[in-house]
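not sure who needs this but someone in the group chat was asking about Bifunctional uridylyltransferase/uridylyl-removing enzyme from Herbihabitans rhizosphaerae so here u go. i didnt clean anything up, its just raw.
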Amino acid sequence: MSDNQGEDRVDATSAVEATTADVALARDRLLGNGSGRSKLPAPVLREALADLYEFWLTVHAGQSGVDGRAGVALLAVGGLGRRELVPYSDLDLVLVHDGRSDVREIAERLWYPLWNSGVGLDHSVRTVGEALQVARTDLRTAMGLLDARHVAGDATVTERLATSARAQWRTGVRDRVDDLVESAWQRWRRAGEVAHWVQPDLKHGRGGLRDLAIVQALALAQLVDRPADDVTQAHALLLDARTELRRLAGRARDVLRPQDGDEVAAALGMTDRFVLARALSGAGRAVGYAVDVAFRAARPATGRRVLGVLRRGPERRGLADGVVLHGAEVALARDVSPERDPALLLRVAAVAARGKHPIAQGTLSRLADSAPEPRSPWPASARQELISLLGAGDGLVDIVEALDRTGLWARLFPEWGAVRDLPPRDAAHMWTVDRHLVQATAHAAGLVTSVSRPDLLLVGTLLHDIGKGRDADHSEVGAKLARQVAGRLGLSTSDVETVSAMVRHHLLLPHTATRRDVTDEATVSRVAETLNGDPVLLELLAALTEADSRATGPGVWTDWKATLVAELVAACRTAMAGKRPPGPDPLDDKQRARAETVAASGKPDIVLEPESTPGTSLATVTAMAIDRPGLLSRAAGVLALNSLEVHAATVWTHGSVGVQQFHVSPRFGSLPDATLLREQFTRAVTGSLPLGEKLAAKERDYAGVAQDGPPPKVLWFDGEAGSGDVVLELRAADRIGLLHRVAEALEAAGVGVHWARVSTVGATVVDSFALVSATSGDLGWRQKIERAVLMAVG
């Protein structure tokens, strides 16, 4: 190298270093560092930063050899490529060439000053072919190239790479959707959610800016529609909040902490951090829902071979009356009329939640357009489906989100608007209030077998913080709102008051247990008196306390707290000396006359009486036959064989006649023919119907529809059913033929059933059996019966 060439190299390097210093100073002035704070709004600031860096890179690239000569170009990807450059972002740059031999020297001159500039740099040097090859195997690179934008050099090289990268993405994206979904789920597990979280990660969280990039990439491939207006608005808010957060922090930060919320809110023209948190939660929900819909739409429909022919398109499989599983989504049956069925919306939601399947977007749109708001009071069928939905556990969360995003949840619960996206005031809470209520209900679903009224537990848990967001004691306001909602649902007067009391006193047990001496008689008496000596309310509050604590945040429900609450509840239960399950009411005149006819003729009889309420498929089935062992199991088996779901049942004896009365509804379609029921019941009683074989086949048809529920529980009560009787109470998740199997297990153990009361609420049963046995007081006998029942349930 000549002396003149060396001098030229030194002069060029000095010029680059001067440019580097200038850009650092210019960046600081834009951000307001040093003297005076910048007044540039967030969108203008991002544009100014992009312009600054692009000008700097253009000059610097030309000095480094990336000039107008053919064969090499500098590309921007990432935030600079999209011109969404937030403060303190890395510059994502690609030096692309067509095989030039001097590219290494160009790269050294290009990258070296950047490393010393204080600006983060993510860079690579590749030919067009190399870049495309990396994109075939690296998802991040493939998506990054979709934003490629020319900065300096040969624009034809940039155009060739950008065009080829987008074409390659379009043709191969379906094979990459599973990887895209898996990478997103891994990121969400690390970063959490933007919606509902107290400290959202605006970039990496579910519903954040990374998810927007996914939706845009799938839209570019024409697998989904371009983002709707609400998603576009969410995009702008997330970008602005991230911009102001980084400007405030003076460094790269994407997690918005509550202590930074007021300043960021002020910079965005909002009154305080609570307004900002609510807006960000809504934005996160819009983006999160959009990416969920995009993933479902983008997944390729799998075909399968039937008799050697490839059958394309997803299958339709019946799940419930008017509801099918279409591929991996829950959808409406083809001939269903949503406007005529007030329970259909909730039935769709319940089936989807219990099976953890998403509801098809078209189904949600159709329901939003035509599903009626249930009239007050709700019909029993709608109420049953609501309880089934609330008892679905983890599957509830996504379904409520889908309903809420399409306006359907507000149609069911207009009171929800005050808590939607409402940030908590208590630092212990990790969720917004609405999400906390749903999370608590999901936890309560795992506790339904610990209470005698699982329906009231689920409704009360859903509503326990419904009074928040108003300028008054949320427990008192919530109690009034809960009374309003429970009345609209059609609950009885006493149940309405129980739900209201749950909401009013939902903090009583945890506050008392952790702040008072639970062994003090005065403490116990005060709690018992506050609850009016009601043991049912006590056990409901105990379960609600656990569900509420678990949904608040990690570490809130501890072993110590659980022990204190359990001790308080046990002491209060002793003080209350509560009532136990009652036996059935006597037969009315009509039932007594029918029983006497059966006694005289000796012929079994069964009567099917549909309820007269419009829009409901509920019915009462009364089966009678000469009393003998196995009568209850056979009657229940016939109902299961006809796909009838038992919501309640009562069993009596009237002289020599056994009477079983069931309140049922069809799982699919319409009620069965009464003549067929009578013929099957008669054959079952006489033993000519292979009931076990037919039910086994029926259960196989339902395999995979019912989900695992909370563990079953057996309770024993003495002195409640008359002389010589003991009451066994079973609490378990419902499934097809459950009552048949339990009754059969009792009968096989040689135990007589004096009477029975069966109640199915949603997906949970609470069944009481008065058992007759000379050895019923023997502990070993009870253990034997309990094992038999639990084995039948399992």
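also Residues 11-175 form a domain with the Beta Polymerase; domain 2 fold (CATH 3.30.460.10). if thats useful
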